[in-house]
Amino acid sequence: MPFEVHPAEASDIPDIVAIHQVVWVDDPIVGRLMPNVDPKAKYDYDVDFYKKKFDSRTLTGAVMHKVVDTDTGDCNLSQHGIPEIDVVTSLTNVDGRKLVAFARWKYPYTLTPEQQAQKDKLDLSRSYPPGTNEELYEQFFGRLDTLRQRYLDEAEEYFLHILIVSPAYQRKGLGTMLIREGLAAADRDKVRTYVEASPKGLGLYKKHGWKEVDEIVIDMRPHGGTGIATEKCLIREPGAGIA
Question: Is 137 exposed, middle or buried (0-12, 13-18, 19+ CB in 10 A)?
Answer without folding.
Answer: middle
